[in-house]
Amino acid sequence: MTAMTSPARPFLNRRLAEFGTTIFAEMSALATTTGSINLGQGFPDADGPEEVREAAVRALRDGRGNQYPPGPGVPELRTAIADHQLRRYGLSFDPDTEVLVTAGATEAIAATLLALLEPGDEVIALEPYYDSYAACIAMAGATRVPVTLRPDAEQERFRLDLDELRDAVTDRTRLLLINTPHNPTGTVLTREELTAIAELAVERDLLVVTDEVYEHLVFDEAAHVPPATLPGMRERTVTIGSAGKTFSFTGWKVGWVTGSPGLVSAVRSAKQFLTYVASGPFQHAVAEALALPDSYFDALRADMLAKRDVLAAGLTAAGFEVFRPAGTYFVTADIRPLGPELSRNGDGLAFCRALPELAGVVAIPNAVFYDHREAGAPFVRFAFCKRTEVLTEAAERLRKAFAH
User: Fold this and answer.
1) H/E segment holding residue 289
2) At residue 211, what are phi and psi to the nearest 5 degrees?
3) What's residue 10's pLDDT?
4) Which of 119, 234, 324, 404 has its CA 20 to 30 A from that of 283?
5) Are the C-beta atoms of residues 91 and 226 closer than 8 Å to each other?
């Protein structure tokens, strides 16, 4: 047999040629090889509620979900999702036709974009954006059109320029891809901003896909407003949720989609050829988790708020300019105040690659989430979904490395 030496064309589909190994894999490997504290990838370092874990064990032992679950998801979970949306936001969904369970929010995003997009379509996404957005848009053969969130140092947040958003819409625009609370900046879009987005969507007859996986992690005076609750949006919005961030079981990969029957049917048509089904016993556990009392969600928010403040204070003491997040469990920091030498002349990627040796901490460079790399170059993202003692130790390491 003759070995292939130089294929006529590259093995990788050219639509994916720009996407190499994810930055998360690179930085997590760096954390392992250097023994650094990993504040890069957004996963908790402790499991969620014991009663939820026990619900999964019970489902396994009872034989619930050990074989293929129903394609749309187990009925108990679909009902729990519908109840959650009604109780929290006043949104009424039929569990049988308007709810779809997915293998995490990542599959929900992929199935939604593959279902709704065709070559030639344009997708407006808020930049910086979660990296799978760009890859899924590319796999669908569509074109991404970034609208950049701009840093506002005075208010310690990143802002959406609504005029820039309006100007980005063309006759080829198919949908708006919205993420609020926003990863990586921690921005929570206000009701006024979302109302303007909704009015634009209705005016231009656009679909809206909204990633709300951090819906229960909103701090201070911010409030999460699902776009589907706004006038004219119920029938044109696909809402994506997930159990991983809310219940700290990210490995279970249980996500969902809610929307009108037509939209959910379209997404299900794509989803059935991806994983088909997944996470059977965990679906039963998440159904119980969604029914936890408000006290659980309040305690989660309070815990994450305290951890946010520990890390934000540590970063400030070390000399970073900190954008205090109103949501998610990430803090974005500007490295330029550290000085040109320590900040690698404001190059966040070079800084993050050097950070384990400099301070024994791993972070993620925001530039990898931008098309306009220069706009994100000086910003890095730190995760605070870790035990308080880990955050305290990381803050001390950063202070020793950088404080003047």
Assistant:
1) helix 280-290
2) -95, 110
3) 86
4) 234
5) yes
For 115-142, write each residue's pLDDT tens digit. 999 999 999 999 999 889 999 999 999 9
Query: So what's the pLDDT on residue 18?
Result: 83
* pLDDT band (50, 70, 90) for residue 154: confident
What is the pTM for the complete model shown?
A: 0.94
Residue 306's CB: how many other CB atoms inside 10 A?
Answer: 12
- Give the tens place of pLDDT for each residue, 19-56: 877 888 889 899 999 999 999 988 899 999 999 999 99
Amino acid at 93: F
Q: What angle do CA 192, 197, 202 make, to 5 degrees?
A: 125
The residue ranking higher by pLDDT, 2 or 393, is 393
Phi, psi of 348 (to 5 degrees): -65, -35
Mean pLDDT of 370-392: 96
Summarised one tens digit per residue, pLDDT across range 313-328 is 999 999 999 999 999 9
Task: Determine the pLDDT at residue 116.
Answer: 98
Query: Phi first, then psi: what are they for 121, rounded to 5°?
Result: -70, 150
For residue 157, list its beta bridge partners.
Answer: 152
Cis peptide before 72 (omega within 30 of 0): no
**Beta carbons of 100 and 274 less than 8 angstroms apart:** no
Taking the CA atoms of the chain, what radius of gyration do you get in angstroms?
A: 21
The token pair at 241 is: 């949720």
**Gap between the Cα atoms of 237 and 357, Å rounded:** 45
| Full strand arrangement of the beta sheet holding 122-127 | 99-102, 255-258, 237-242, 207-211, 173-179, 122-127, 143-148
How many residues make up the chain in this entry?
404
**Residue where the block lists tokens 């088909």:** 276
Cβ partners under 8 Å of residue 227, min gap 6: 178, 194, 197, 198, 208, 210, 233, 237, 239
Spatial distance between the Cα atoms of 254 and 189, rounded to a whole number of angstroms:
25
pLDDT at residue 231 in the model: 97
Measured between alpha carbons, how far is 176 from 121 in angstroms, rounded to an integer? 11
Residues 6+ apart with CB under 8 A from 325: 181, 185, 186, 187, 219, 308, 331, 332
Q: What does the block give as tokens for 305?
A: 């708020």
Nearest to 286 by CA among 110, 79, 99: 79
Give yes or no for a contact between 40 and 364, defined as CB atoms under 8 angstroms apart: yes
Do the beta carbons of residue 115 and residue 270 sit within 8 Å?
A: yes
Can you read off the two tokens belonging to residue 232?
A: 């004219």
Q: What is the DSSP code (8-state) at residue 251?
A: G
